[in-house]
TrEMBL record:
Span list, region Disordered: 410-446
Signal as UniProt keyword: yes
InterPro entries named in the record: Endo/exonu/phosph_ase_sf
Superkingdom of source: Eukaryota
PANTHER family per UniProt: ENDONUCLEASE/EXONUCLEASE/PHOSPHATASE FAMILY PROTEIN (AFU_ORTHOLOGUE AFUA_3G09210), ENDONUCLEASE_EXONUCLEASE_PHOSPHATASE FAMILY PROTEIN (AFU_ORTHOLOGUE AFUA_3G09210)
Gene3D superfamilies: Endonuclease/exonuclease/phosphatase
Biased composition (Polar residues): 411-422
Originating species: Cryoendolithus antarcticus
Residues annotated as signal peptide: 1-17
Keyword terms, alphabetized: Signal
Protein name (record): Endonuclease/exonuclease/phosphatase domain-containing protein
């Protein structure tokens, strides 16, 4: 008799209805993947064009398991409304559209739908707070530094990249510690973000928008953006994706937008040249595929004259040839640069001259036919080129005794190293994987090329400093990399230069040059 009782208790246990949390599990991929189940009960919290989201009605207090799951099936979802509690049978499936992404644990082939009740209240989980029942009791404030326990030494920028994959390791979630684990533990959940601050403009034409809410954040700067700092790429931010109701997100947001608007640009610099050799100033400006005839001229002039105070030298990037992206043999950019210096002079009454080296047609990356290159513009009332002797695109510059340069200006050209990239220093990044993707640490495209570029350019500078340790060398431009990532670390090690932000003791959250996008 006793034995029979035990058996029947055990049988009840084994066949007791399944919960959402048992399906989602405490790892990225469900241990139930590929199996069927019966009698899953949940509240419909949202509907989309191809399915709906179900929140379990029997939540646990385990912060690792998500209490909500996506149920795929357009025909199934059509007859069901938000606020209904339903019971279904179905299958557990791991789905992803690309091997770069994480898997989504979802329910497929939902069947035997039983509607238990309708018109129930649907409350969102408020992010940044402690939950008291809806999805059990847990803290839903995102971690602020670490992305994944799989990132080498907890560093998302670690080199080499792609040492492991989430899909292969399928780690147990640690939502209190790793940002990716935190968001995975809320996969499919209906949430509210309060006190929203926008991080830059929408990320794409759908209006997808990175934001943070009124929870603890790291790297916040006065303009309300979040600066990426060493080992901290801000996992506490989240993207607001395409609305489910067919409406569109506002696509005019910009950095720092909340309910009010803040200036898009930081305050103008108060650093001014004193007009003497010991007080020249320099600035760096990415003109973003700029060619003669571009309507952005007044804007660029305003940035250089008003916001950077008309520096003695401006290091320009992404200067296109005179005929923009017309893909012909022309590589000359003198009309492009003349248009800019003429407009600068008209606005500031300061004369500017320019210098650059034309590339070989279509060999330096960027838009085909555009032939972007680096160029210098400089105040001709303060600065002149020392013994001008311009090199051609294939003339490899060298450090000669004194020290002096073989070509002035000239390019550092090492074809194997600077293939399809701007010379001497700037390089395109190639394909990188998303920070939240499968590969850990994430893929940093062409990183080995860029390490080599940093080393070659660093060695050139080291040669100058070996001859004259007080030589005034500035390495400037768009390095396409954070200063704590391997290509720039190697550049600093090999060249012997120091990062100006570090020397000037600039606060770490102010060490940025770009808000994306
Ligand atoms: C599922 O629900 C049906 C109908 O309520 C019931 O007959 C069956 O025993 C349940 N199965 C399990 C595994 O709970
Ligand atoms: C999920 O299960 C299916 C069917 O058994 C299998 O083909 C697939 O590889 C599994 N996916 C993962 C991510 O384990
Ligand atoms: C779903 O689960 C059922 C029951 O386990 C199984 O018979 C069926 O083959 C599964 N369907 C799919 C598409 O995996
Ligand atoms: C939806 O409801 C209608 C009307 O009750 C019914 O005829 C139809 O079969 C249902 N469709 C599905 C997919 O359940
Ligand atoms: C912004 O949204 C408006 C209205 O939906 C649309 O007409 C416009 O093309 C969008 N702009 C961009 C840059 O996507
Ligand atoms: C650009 O240089 C070419 C060739 O040196 C010259 O013919 C042309 O006049 C120059 N254009 C401008 C706008 O200075
Ligand atoms: C440069 O890259 C192109 C295309 O990726 C390749 O065909 C070519 O061989 C490379 N050249 C050198 C010098 O590495």
């Amino acid at each position: 008799m006793k034995v029979l009782l035990a058996t029947s208790l055990l049988a009840v246990d084994l066949t007791s209805a399944i919960t959402v949390a048992q399906i989602t599990g405490d790892r990225y991929q469900s241990s139930l993947n590929g199996t069927g189940f019966t009698n899953l009960t949940g509240l419909v919290t949202a509907k989309g064009p191809s399915g709906l989201w179900l929140r379990g009605t029997a939540p646990d207090d385990n912060e690792r398991t998500s209490e909500s799951v996506y149920v795929f099936g357009a025909a199934f979802a059509r007859n069901i409304t938000r606020g209904q509690i339903i019971t279904i049978d179905g299958n557990v499936t791991e789905y992803r559209s690309s091997s770069a992404y994480l898997y989504l644990t979802e329910v497929t082939t939902p069947r035997s739908v039983r509607i238990i009740s309708s018109g129930n209240a649907v409350e969102p989980v408020v992010l940044g707070k402690r939950t008291l029942g809806l999805i059990g009791r847990r803290d839903v404030s995102p971690p602020t530094e670490l992305y994944s326990s799989l990132d080498t030494n907890n560093d998302i920028f670690a080199y080499p990249n792609t040492v492991s994959r989430v899909s292969a390791e399928n780690p147990r979630l640690n939502p209190g510690r790793s940002g990716m684990d935190f968001w995975e533990s809320l996969s499919g959940e209906l949430v509210t973000v309060q006190g929203v601050t926008a991080l830059g403009r929408p990320a794409n034409t759908f209006g997808d928008q990175w934001v943070y809410g009124d929870w603890k954040v790291n790297g916040r700067k006065p303009r309300r953006g979040l600066t990426v700092t060493p080992e901290d790429a801000n996992p506490e931010t989240v993207i607001v994706g395409t609305p489910l109701d067919g409406t569109r997100n506002v696509n005019t947001t910009k950095l720092g937008d909340t309910l009010e608007t803040v200036p898009e640009l930081p305050p103008p610099s108060n650093i001014k040249t004193n007009g003497k050799c010991d007080g020249i100033t320099d600035g760096s400006y990415n003109a973003e595929n700029f060619a003669a005839g571009n309507p952005r001229v007044p804007r660029i002039v305003e940035h250089i004259v008003k916001y950077t105070n008309s520096p003695s030298i401006v290091f320009l990037q992404e200067i296109q040839d005179n005929n923009c992206e017309t893909n012909n043999v022309n590589v000359d950019a003198n009309a492009t640069l003349l248009e800019l210096t003429t407009a600068l002079e008209a606005s500031s009454k300061i004369p500017y001259a320019f210098t650059d080296v034309d590339p070989v047609n279509n060999q330096d990356g960027g838009a085909p036919g555009g032939n972007i290159r680096n160029a210098y513009i400089y105040r001709s009332d303060q600065i002149r080129q020392f013994k001008p002797n311009p090199g051609g695109p294939l003339d490899s510059n060298a450090v000669l005794p004194d020290p002096t340069l073989r070509y002035n200006p000239g390019r550092i050209t090492t074809p194997q190293v600077f293939n399809s990239s701007r010379k001497p220093l700037v390089a395109d990044k190639g394909r990188s994987s998303s920070l939240e993707g499968d590969a850990r640490p994430p893929v940093n495209g062409r990183i080995d090329n860029r390490i080599a570029e940093g080393e070659v350019t660093g060695a050139f500078i080291a040669e100058i400093l070996a001859q004259d340790r007080n030589a005034a060398v500035i390495a400037s431009g768009d390095f396409n990399e954070f200063s704590w990532v391997r290509p720039l670390e190697r550049f600093v090690e090999v060249s012997g230069l120091k990062e100006l932000d570090v020397v000037a003791n600039v606060k770490d959250v102010e060490r940025y040059s770009y808000t994306f996008k």
